[in-house]
Design goal:
Elements lengths: L2 E6 L4 H12 L3 E8 L11 E5 L12 E4 L5 H4 L2 H22 L3 E5 L11 H13 L6 E6 L3 E2 L7 H12 L14 E2 H14 L2 E6 H8 L5
Helix pairs in contact: 1-6, 3-4, 6-7
Length: 219
């Protein structure tokens, strides 16, 4: 009932949903939001902003760390710049959390992540997952959502087309294809919090299971 959480990537689609849910959740008394931009309007009571440009430190009093860091290849501009965020930065945050004695870490990866994939994006995410498994946490939960549904602050044409497709043809994603259904970012965030509250060990949670977990989410 008195947990302290840290959210990295708190201005993104999943991260912003995490902040809203954690603010309402009775299990958490304080949330540290690591972000590079200030809140336009801070309507939160339990959330404290941490300037991610200058501060990577994690207090030993933090119980749960949620990581939803990521960047598009277009915005990164190069493979090296992309990997600096989706691999290097995520691993650095996890290392800092481990050194601070954090017990639980929940990280957003991607459906299809595989360190041996020929696809650079999926390979980078897979390599990140493998690196995180080297750390010793009470809980390491790697979540692999399919395409994320929800309103972003920035327009992404390719993603918008994908979202339209998934919503329009949702009925075809049954059986083996069910895991590729789009998932609402709020449901992904609910599942991450539920995992932090109930799970242990090193686990990987696929998209369709995230939705099932979100359906039993409680404050």
């Amino acid at each position: 009932m008195n947990r302290k959480a840290a959210v990295f990537g708190s201005s993104g689609l999943v991260g912003s949903n995490l902040l809203s849910l954690l603010e309402e959740n009775m299990n958490y008394s304080e949330i540290l939001a690591y972000r590079r931009k200030a809140f336009e309007e801070n309507a939160f009571n339990k959330v404290k902003l941490v300037d991610f440009n200058n501060d990577f430190s994690i207090a030993s009093s933090v119980d749960d760390v949620f990581i939803s860091l990521g960047i598009t290849m277009k915005k990164a501009g190069s493979k090296n710049a992309f990997k600096a965020v989706d691999f290097d930065l995520v691993v650095e945050v996890a290392r800092n959390a481990n050194q601070a004695g954090v017990k639980r870490i929940i990280v957003v990866s991607s459906i299809g992540a595989d360190a041996r994939s020929s696809n650079f994006y999926l390979r980078t995410r897979g390599e990140m997952e493998e690196e995180l498994r080297k750390f010793d946490f009470e809980l390491l939960a790697i979540v692999r959502p399919s395409i994320l549904l929800g309103k972003r602050n920035e327009f992404r044409f390719g993603e918008s087309v994908g979202i339209w497709f998934f919503r329009t043809f949702r009925f075809i994603f049954v059986g083996p294809l069910r895991r590729y259904r789009g998932i609402d970012a709020n449901d992904a965030a609910k599942a991450m919090i539920q995992l932090a509250l109930t799970a242990k060990g090193k686990i990987t949670v696929e998209s369709e299971v995230l939705k099932q977990i979100a359906d039993v989410y409680y404050l």
